[in-house]
Structure formats: C-alpha cells, structure tokens
Task: inverse folding
C-alpha cells in the first residue's frame, strides 16, 4: 500500500514520548562553561561604564565579556536582504555606547555553573544615563535620545495598476484603520546554543536549532575567521520553532565567540523571562487601507499605508515582514490596482522578527477587515463579496506584478471559488451562520466570521538529499531539514518509501550536520516538505533506477521487468521466480575489488532541487465566537478551515499543522499583547502575566484538506503547510466578534480584550431581553 | 613551486606540540561510565563461577556484565579471511566456561569513576579450576586441558615450481632452523574506546582509532541489530598504531554493547599492564627452511615449514600473518620452486595479531638468514650471493604464482640490482665493511649485516575522497584515512595542492566519520598514501576541471587558456588580465536560484579508487653492531637503508617512517621478548621489565630514498612506506651479530640477548689479545 496521502504516525513519536528527545539543553560536555547575559534594565540610556570587577570576585567565574572585548565582532547581518541598507540599524552583539531596549545584552559572564554565572551577572554594575525612550513609532525624523539613528529603518513600496484611475472610477471608497499589538512565539523550549572548540581538528562544533543552520554557520565562520568547514552545526531537536528559534541572535554569536576564545565548551540556555525580553517579537503594526469599490462590489484598487514597529534594531530578517505585508495584502482578490507604502519604524522595544505566518497574517488581517467593511458598506453578504472578487482559475498562474522573498509574486495555482464551495458544503457553513443568527436573536452574543487567506511558502532556494541502502535494507536519508515537531522525517520517509518500494519504517531520516549537507536555505517559510520533499523524490527516483539496473544485472532479467515491493526486488509479472532482497543488493554493490555488480559505487543516490518560484497555498477560515456578557471574554468554540496544500503527503500532519496554527492564531487575536509601560518596561515578562491559550481555550477545529491545485513549482505539487492555520485566524475572529456584537468594524485593534468588549457593552443602552424579543 | 616530492613540515604538528591532540582519552561526556575489565589471573582454567555481588556493594557501581549477560553477543569474526574456518577459535567477548590466557576478559564493571570501577573489579570473585596450560606449540592433535579445540587453528600452504626437481638438481642443500620470540607493539597511547548512545537519533556514536573503523562499525551494527548508519565511528588522533590499535577487540565490543544497554556514555582506557597482557602480540614463530643451491650459488628452490604461536584465540586478522610469511619468504629472489607449510598453533598465551611489518618481517628473517647460511656454505660473499639471485627488472611485473591479502603475489615493479648498487655507492658500504673487518682485527666485536626485503603494501581495496572549496578558497578534503602520526594529512594536502593550484596550507584535511565516508578498507598495510592519495588525486583532477570550466564561463575565456596558481585563476599566457580568486568562484557556484555559474552544484568533487593489485616496495638494510665483551650487550651504532617507495610524496615523512621502523626493528631483534613463566604468567607486564629502546639505543640511520620503480598499481606510482624500516632489521642485525662474533648462524633465535652472547663468548677458549693480533 502506498504511504503518500495517508495519515501515518510519526515513527519518532516514541523518542519524544519517552523523554529521549535530543534538545539543545540535553547537550553537555565536561568542563563546559555556562553563559549568562547581563541585560539592560532600561529602555533607553547612554551606557557610560560596565564594572565587571565584582563578578570576577566570585569563585567559578572564568570570564566576563563586554563590548570592548568583542569590539572586532561585527553586528550580525541580514539574511533576507531586500536591497535596503540596514547596516546602521543592526544590533551590536553587546551594547557599546547606548542601550536601546529592556533586555539588550550588555555583558556576558562565563562560569563553571549556571548558578555562579547568574549570581555573577547580578553583581555587574552598569553605569547608565537614562534617556527618554521612544515607545511608539513616530513620523518625526529626529530622535532626541538617539540622534545617530533617526526613527525609521526602511520603507517598503509595492504597486501595480493605475490606482488613480481605480479610485476615480470607484462608486464608493471604503477605509479602515487597523492595529495589531505586539506578540511573540512561545515555544515550549526557549532559545539556547552549545558550542565547543575542538583544538585537535581546529573545528568549532555547534549544537542548536536548525532553522537557518547553514547561514548561521557562514556568519560565524566569517566572524571567527575560519574556513567554512571549521564550523559544524549539529541540528538538535526543537521544541517548537515558530520562526523565533534558530535565527542567529547576538547571544548565539557570543556563545560561539566565547567557545573559540576560551577553548572550553560554552552553553547558553535562555530562561523564560529572557525569552520574553529578548527573543524576536512580532506583529505590532498599524495600517490604514482604502478600497475603491464599484457598484457591483468589485474592488478596483487598494491603497495601503502601514507601519511596523521594528523595536530597537533590525535583525536577521531585515525588512521581510514589512515586505510580505506589502506583497500579500491583495491576497486572493483580482484588484486592478494596488499601492502599499510600509514604514519600518524604530522604537525602544525588543527587536521584531518573524513569527509563524509572518507578514501574511498581518496582510490577511488588513485585507479581510477591509473586505468586511466593504461588505457592510455595499450591503453585500461578506462571503458573496469575497466570492465575486476571487481570482478565477483561468487566470492561474497569476502574476501580481510584484516581488517578495527574492522572486515574483506569481500565484502558482489556485481554485479559490471551488475551495469556498467545498468548505461551505462540507461544514454546512450556511447552517452555522443561521444557527448563530438564531442564538443572537435569543440574546446570546454569538458571531461567525470568515477570512480567505493566501499564504506564501517555499520561496526561491535549494535543497539536497542523500540516500543510501545498507545490508539490512535500511534506506538512509540524510537531509538538512530540521525536525521541529512538524513531522518532516515522517514525510520524507513516506515519499522515499513509495518510490523505493519499502515500508516507511525502514526509512531512517537523519538531520545531517553542515558537513554532510553543506548547503541549505533552512527549515522555514513552510518550505521543507516542498523543497526537501522534492529533493528526496528525485534522490529516490535515482536510487530506484540504480536498484533496478543493478538487480537486472544480478538476476539477468531486464530492468523493466522488475519491481520492488516490501524491500524485495522481483519480476513484476510473476508470482514466483528470482527474488532479491534490497539488503543483499546493497551488500553486492559495496565498493571494492570484490564488488559483485559493477554498477557505480555503493547503493546510494543524491537528489537536489533548485527553485526560483514561490508556492501560494490558500484557505478559508471560519471562526465562531461567543462573548460572555458579564466579563467581556471572547471564546472560540468552533473553527472550520478549508485549505489547499496542493498535495498532502501526510494529511494527519497537515491537519496537525492547521490545528496548531488555529490555536496560535487565537492567542494573537484575543490574548494579551507584549506591551510596555510608559518607561518601556515590559508589562509581561513571565507566563503568568502573558497568558497563552491552554487546552481550555482551544476550539473544536474541523479541517477540510483540499488537493485541487497542485503546485507546478515542484514535481510533488506540494504548496507547504507550515504557516497554515494561523494566517486567517485574526480576521476571522475579528469578523466574528463584530458579528456577535452587531458592530461592524468594532474589532479594529488586536488583541480584542475583554476590557474592550466590556467598554462597548457598557456604552450601549441596556435593553431588557423581553423587549428585544418583542421587537 | 610544486609540493609533491618535497619534505614539507606537517601543518598539524603544532596541534600535537601544543598538547591539543584529540586522542580517545580526551573524549568525555557527562554521566559517562568507566569500564574496567576483570581479567583471568591464570593461563588455563575451567571457569566455574563469577561472584559479582561484592562489586555491586560498592557505591558508584552501575553494572557488572559477565558471559551470561552477553550470551547473545557472538565472538568478533575475522576481517581478513583466507578461507579457513576459524569459528571455533574465535574469542568470546567474555570468557564463559574456560579462561585461556592470563588477561582474558571475564567480566566488566561499569562505574561512575575509574577508581570505583577498578576497586570493584578487584572485588569480583572468580571461581576457577586450574588446568595444565599449553605454553608452546605442540604437534599433538589432542589437548588434555582443552578437549574441544585441539592445538591447531589452521594451516597455510603455498607453493610454486617443482620442488623435487630443484632439490634433486641441487649441488648442495642448506638448512636453517630459526625462531623469533614474542613481541608486541607499544604505542605511546594504549587502547581505548568511548561509545555514546544517542537516544534521540537512535545512534551509537563511537570514538576511537581509525585503523579499521568501517569494518568495526559493520560488526558492531550487526551485533547490536542496528542499521549501519546507526553506528557512527569518529576517528580520533592516534598515538602510534603499529597494527595493534584500532582492531576490534572484545573490550571494544563490550564498550559498545554497554553503552547501548545502559544508555549512558561508556569509556574504556586501557592501562599499560592491560596492554601488555591483552592487546594483540606478534612474531613468536619457529621455522625450518631448506634451500637447494646450484654450483654458482643460484637458489633453485626453498622448502619452508613454520609455526606461528597464535596464543589462545584467533582474532580479527585470522591467518593473515602466517599467510604473509608463506607468501613473502621468496622475497626478491628468482627461485624456481618453493613450498611453504605453515601451522597456526594454539597455546595459552595472549592472542597474536599483526604488528608493523606483519609476516613480511618474519619472512625476511627466514629468507635472509637462509641466504647468509648459503653464502657461508658456498663461500660466496653474502652481498654477491644476493645479487646473483635477485629478480631481473625484465621479469617485472613478476607473477610468483601465489596469492595473499586477497590478490596475486605479482611484484608490480622493481629494479633490485640497481637499488643494491645505489645504496652501496651512496653509503660506501664496502668501506663500512672493511672498517668493521679492521676493527675486528683489532679485537673489537664489530660486525656488519645486510638484508634485502620486499614488503607487500596497499592490497586490494577501495577508497573515496571528497573535496570542496569554500568562499575563502580553503580546499577541504574529507577522507577515511586516519592520521596516526604518519602524516597522511600532509601527504594528501600536497597531492591536492599541486593539482588544484593552491598552497598546501590552504588544504584542510579531515578524517571523516563513517557517515561522511561510508566505505573504506582502513588505515593499515601501508595503504593510505597509495590508495587514499590516488583517490585524492582523482578528486583533485575532477575539481581542477570543474574550476577551469566554471571560471571559463565566468571570465569568457576558453578553459584551456586558464591556469590556477596560488589559489587564483588567470590566463596562462598573460601576466595581466582577468583574475579570479578560487573563493570568489566557489561563492559564485554555491547552489540556489542565484547561482552565478550554472556548472553543477557547488565547487566540489569526489574521487575514488578500487584496486585488485598489491604493491611491493623493497629495500636494502645494512646494520652495524658492536658487542660489549664484558656484558654481551649488542648495540647498533649505524644503520643504512636504501628503499624504493615508487614515489615519495613527502620524502621527509617517508624517511621518518623508515627511521621509526628501524628503531622498532632493533627492539624486536635485540630487546627482551614477551615471555611467560612455566605457569603461563607473563614475565613482563610493565615497561620496566619490558625494555623498549630509548633514544640511547637508537642508531644513526642513513636513508637513501629511491624512486626508480614507480608502481603501476596506482596513478601516483606510490608503493607505500608504512611498514618500511622494520622489515629488514631483524635479519640485518642477526647477520651483523654473526659477523661480529665470527660465528655464522649464531643468531638463529630472536631476540639476541646479552645472556646468549655471553654464553657464546664464555664457551670460547679465551685467547690473549696479543696472540690474536700476532696470528
């Protein structure tokens, strides 16, 4: 039976359920040093001096590094460049003359135990001259506190069509003003890195998350003036990545630098407070969008202005989030004209980066809130309005005349109307809406909202996979893809198993180090199944061909008469006859003078893939919300998602991605944001204050996987599902809240808090229920 | 300037001089267990019981394993099979019912510290019923003490020509009876292994010597029922290998097994006493050789019978040593007929294996002692006699009609007479001999002896090398070759540097693990420079071609107009014009959609080599000895070696091999043997009793490297030099001792001890010196 398309279990679940997972905190070496970061306690100040003497007095402290010690270490650059010059806004690995956010690294202590390191860090004296922090984006070019930098790091501009004509022709113009507060990914496992200098081989070995291992390796090698091969990155298991883990942070560079400098293993495991202060944060946008609409509800053009509050510095992802917001706001709709102007603003807050759904979630929020406003203003049913504006399948591939993520925004494939129809049918969405209407009529605050999303996934890049077969018939897969819980090992095993003709549990997938797989664009942007999966497919096809040719030589049977089933090669048209075990064949092909079948060296094969195209998975999210009239609390009992991933290698895992994304989307839409006080101090620096959704808040999620529009970008037709689920939740919930409250445009700011809702409810003239019923 | 052929320094010397070498004892992990082996205190006994209880009482003891615990672990098999069935003679990983030598592993303790492990091991009670040990090889088929096994493990038979006719036609028959006592290699670093089970990746990682890493991996994977890729062998630095280190011993298997069983890292570092009791020993042969000689001193035939005292068990090398003795005794001489019958005898001594020069040193001793006897009996000068019998270059390649090491004994190339001439000339050997004669005439006991040797090297096998270039222009070489101090990294860097056109210090050579290079026949039998060097040559040629083709595309200049010098690519016929740095080119070829030159993926290349031929390096050894009349001590003030290695990539390193071999050969010829008492207890179990040569005993060694006969077995013409230097020392010293004492055939038994010499001197009628002078 084929493996691809079946919701098979992950064979490596047992490892994690048994507590055997190999996370970065599980890596340890004798004589290792523990690194503790001394962080700025204020949001903006001149850094006058750092007194490290008291720390050295503590037994067990080996070294304290300040900016002076790393003066020749440059700031970490931008991985995803969009051409903007961002040098001036990059974060120094340790603050030198100014601190610009609460949590900014100022010094690191390296000590024999974590406790000593932590105690010593508290003894270090920071001499600071506080300055007025900039806590919200400002249009002012001049910064009194930070005269060297100004307040804006970059602008983003994208456009197509004639916007003037569109607005000129419009029957009506609809405008929305929106904002989404700060959020951040909270993986179960915080950040961390272990580095060990091997003096014998003159190699720096690093253990950590594999999101961007190869780029990180290159940067570290350059900074430490080492050959590329002298930095080896070993990808560890990851307890949730979500875009935040595995980027190269100043702390990571300090771990690598200290390990090389001191010749002892260095280990840094972040605590939760540090994670909330210093890991990349996200969202924090404000947007103003105007739509030009004709008499039939067709959107002629959209004009968008937005700001992204980047925080204190630009990190590895540069302007990517802003760029994606600009590129993806048009979404599935066939607008004739579009203009987006985005501003990347600097403030004295934690730097921002990507968080699952980066840019696309913000774009969906802007676009779908705008669509709801248009629906309200035109009186057209919101779903009908969307349907009218969706790009027709005949337009595919649809070139949007823009670029992002290094290539054209050309939707690869899509049957948008069909997905709306199928999802509506499957979940009887009309019934869902009628039922909510009925309950509202009964006085309950219940609403339904929908959002159509287009994700961007698997952008331009490269991947390479190596296969080999051993004497037991085990098929080994070495890949750069990092297992982050998404199940990439299982997907690859399924793809390879079908092509090679073995059970998927005989396929052993290893996340290779950076020597084994020297080039990879990383495990990010929903790219692994599409890119690594395709490379694995190509490798498996080459391996199959080699197997059949070699077996043909051994069995003296033409290759095209042979087949492979259950790890055995036999004649396709016979039930009896010669049978060769895959392991036997592998043994016969082992290289050497006694190689029995002279067919290349060993039973192995490589596969690679290079693409310049991006894939565009899409889906419809429908959320049902209930509001507690007494507390204002919004809950989400049900979510329905129809989603087209092109080809679902393992529907169980795709569904898991979607469900996880939905829950994470609820957090962003409804739970508390990562705000700051008037002095720039974080309001929420622990998980008691920063409320994450628990099982109690998780809705029933129903998923319809659709495979109507396989992607032409890769031979498997995969579109990618890593960001799926989250992208559409914010606008769907916002629309549902509007619906529940009967106030279109109420949910203009995320998160929608209970306090906001209570303000709205209290502002209403309270009507007795009996009267409402009688009206 | 070219690198090949120059005595360049090893770039990795600094690592070792600074104490940064990465030896197995430098590998450690948190929570590791230390393994201590409980060894048999007697040479032969029934093992009635093992009481482990007292050991468990010691805090820190985690486990004690006895034969019962490893009942399903089979004995380690034979790597170098010659067809003989040796199953019954293999060593169990732990003794079950009998112990058969002092030092045999009976149990292992695994504890938190080495001290606890050692203390606990001493508490373990062995219930033994002593039996009469067999301490010398016997012809009796029946063994009273060991009825299940008999006394002989295997026989070896090789022959060519008509021996009866040869002896029938002979003018005289010359016979010698010879013996060589037990010896053993004493590397600076004892044996050791570290194994760590990684539960997350379900992989057993092993750190240890890389002599036969791939075979060891395969055996361990099979025993532990794991896929091949689930056992990864990391080759550590080695403090001298000499054939004894890196073979798979019972102790190694126990380390691997315990690490898997207990899920904790296990570390075993042998102490010197264990090394002297339990590591493979060597030599310990007795031989009777008869030569049929015609009137002109031509050897018509040789009939050889010999025994090898294998000790208690057959280990990984099976019958290799005996096989090589049989195959290599004819050496450089054009005998018409030959027969060798060898017996691998079992005794209650430490098992034997290979030691540098394995089989070839014994063969040289037998052959060259026989030649000296023939010279004496025919009255022909020993060197003249040898010269007459040498194979003529016109006979090359010379098929000897035998097989060994898996392929034909066909001498690849050789100009033997020419080497004798060149060596004689260079070192004025006639003067050396006359001077000794003169000194003898003055009453000194001074002698000169010579031996001509043919080694066998780089037998049938396979190697693979991977190259890549990074953005700095560093050329990376990944190979399975283990650095054992021989300088293989430097040799490979030289070969690659010349072909690619970079300085050899820009070439970074890494001993890859068994995942990076999945197949290799190991670092043994003088094969690395010939095999890995050739694979590196092929890889470098492929890389050069790729560089030129890609550069041609980038520079728009035909590839054949380009050259590479000092890491820069430029037009060969111009001093000015476009120049491209190798690193720049590598960057341009990095894979991905932005790859600037569409020429394959990345700037890398592979090379491999498979051979079914063996190489046969050869040389002339001349030793000068002086005997102290009062103590009988033999010293070796001078040694002269002329040696043809085909192609000396780095003459400095070849010379170092030869000098090291010479000193090691002196130890074997003159220093104390690893004898046992009448109960089978080792006479020498520490380095005070077992006297190794020191700098004081090291002679002045003069080396003439000859490259007259490049090997046709590989494209570099390399013959290999890893065993060189040692092979001829025993017969050269024996002949010199005879010469000094004026007693041809005195040195029939090695080592020649001071006691032997004193007995001889005392047996003579003491003549006053004045009388001798007057005679």
Result:
């Amino acid at each position: 039976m084929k493996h691809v398309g079946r919701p098979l279990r992950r064979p490596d679940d047992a490892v994690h359920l048994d507590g055997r997972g190999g996370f970065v905190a599980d890596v340890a070496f004798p004589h290792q040093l523990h690194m503790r970061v001394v962080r700025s306690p204020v949001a903006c100040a001149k850094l006058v001096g750092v007194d490290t003497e008291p720390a050295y007095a503590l037994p067990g402290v080996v070294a304290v590094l300040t900016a002076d010690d790393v003066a020749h270490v440059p700031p970490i650059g931008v991985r995803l460049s969009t051409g903007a010059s961002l040098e001036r806004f990059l974060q120094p690995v340790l603050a030198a003359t100014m601190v610009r956010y609460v949590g900014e690294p100022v010094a690191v202590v390296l000590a024999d135990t974590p406790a000593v390191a932590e105690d010593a860090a508290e003894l270090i004296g920071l001499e600071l001259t506080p300055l007025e922090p900039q806590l919200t984006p400002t249009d002012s070019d001049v910064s009194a506190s930070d005269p060297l930098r100004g307040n804006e790091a970059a602008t983003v501009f994208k456009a197509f069509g004639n916007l003037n004509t569109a607005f000129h022709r419009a029957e009506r113009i609809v405008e929305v003003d929106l904002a989404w507060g700060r959020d951040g990914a909270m993986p179960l496992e915080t950040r961390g890195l272990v580095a060990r200098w091997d003096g014998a081989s003159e190699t720096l070995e690093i253990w950590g998350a594999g999101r961007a291992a190869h780029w990180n390796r290159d940067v570290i090698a350059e900074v430490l003036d080492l050959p590329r091969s002298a930095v080896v990155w070993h990808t560890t298991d990851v307890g949730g990545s979500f875009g935040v883990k595995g980027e190269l942070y100043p702390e990571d560079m300090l771990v690598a630098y200290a390990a090389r400098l001191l010749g002892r293993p260095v280990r840094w495991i972040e605590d939760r407070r540090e994670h909330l202060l210093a890991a990349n944060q996200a969202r924090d946008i404000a947007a103003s969008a105007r739509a030009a609409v004709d008499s039939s509800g067709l959107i002629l053009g959209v004009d968008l202005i937005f700001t992204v509050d980047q925080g204190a510095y630009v990190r590895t992802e540069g302007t990517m989030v802003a760029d994606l917001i600009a590129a993806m706001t048009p979404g599935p709709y066939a607008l004739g004209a579009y203009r987006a102007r985005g501003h990347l603003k600097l403030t004295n807050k934690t730097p921002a980066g990507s968080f699952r759904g980066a840019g696309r979630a913000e774009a969906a929020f802007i676009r779908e809130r705008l669509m709801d406003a248009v629906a309200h203003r035109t009186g057209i049913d919101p779903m009908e309005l969307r349907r009218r504006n969706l790009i027709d399948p005949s337009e595919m591939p649809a070139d949007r005349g823009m670029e992002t993520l290094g290539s054209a925004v050309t939707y690869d494939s899509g049957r948008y109307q069909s997905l709306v129809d199928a999802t509506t049918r499957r979940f009887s969405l009309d019934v869902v809406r009628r039922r909510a209407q009925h309950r509202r009529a009964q006085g309950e605050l219940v609403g339904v909202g929908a959002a159509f999303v287009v994700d961007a996934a698997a952008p331009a890049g490269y991947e390479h996979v190596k296969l080999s077969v051993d004497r037991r018939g085990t098929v080994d897969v070495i890949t750069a893809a990092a297992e982050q819980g998404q199940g990439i090992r299982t997907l690859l095993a399924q793809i390879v198993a079908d092509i090679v003709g073995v059970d998927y549990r005989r396929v052993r997938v290893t996340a290779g180090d950076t020597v084994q797989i020297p080039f990879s664009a990383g495990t990010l942007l929903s790219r692994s199944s599409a890119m690594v999966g395709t490379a694995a497919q190509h490798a498996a096809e080459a391996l199959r061909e080699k197997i059949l040719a070699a077996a043909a030589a051994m069995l003296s049977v033409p290759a095209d008469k042979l087949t492979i089933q259950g790890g055995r090669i036999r004649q396709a048209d016979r039930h009896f006859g010669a049978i060769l075990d895959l392991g036997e064949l592998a043994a016969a092909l082992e290289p050497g003078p006694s190689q029995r079948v002279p067919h290349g060296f060993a039973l192995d094969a490589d596969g690679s893939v290079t693409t310049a195209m991006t894939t565009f998975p899409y889906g419809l999210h429908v959320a049902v919300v209930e509001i507690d009239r007494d507390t204002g609390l919004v809950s989400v009992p049900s979510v329905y998602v129809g989603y087209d991933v092109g080809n679902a290698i393992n529907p169980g895992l795709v569904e898991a991605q979607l469900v996880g994304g939905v829950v994470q989307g609820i957090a962003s839409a409804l739970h508390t944001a990562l705000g700051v006080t008037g002095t720039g101090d974080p309001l929420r620096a622990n998980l008691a204050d920063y409320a994450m959704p628990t099982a109690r808040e998780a809705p029933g999620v129903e998923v319809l996987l659709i495979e109507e529009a396989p992607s032409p970008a890769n031979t498997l037709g995969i579109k990618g599902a890593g960001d799926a689920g989250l992208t559409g939740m914010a606008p769907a919930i916002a629309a549902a809240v509007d619906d529940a409250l009967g106030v279109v445009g109420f949910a203009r700011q995320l998160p929608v808090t209970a306090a906001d809702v209570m303000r709205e409810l209290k502002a209403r003239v309270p009507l007795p229920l009996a009267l409402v019923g009688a009206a």
